[in-house]
Amino acid sequence: MPAHARPPLPTPSQTVGPFYGYALPFPRGGEVAPDGHPDTLTLHGYVYDGAGQPVPDALIETWQPAPDGSLTGAPGSLRRDPVTGRAIGRDGVAFTGFGRVPTDADGHWAVRTLPPGGVSYLSIAVFARGLLHHLYTRAYVVDEPGDALLGSLDADRRATLIARSEAPRTFRFDIRLQGTGETVFLEFP
Question: What's the pTM?
Answer without folding.
Answer: 0.84
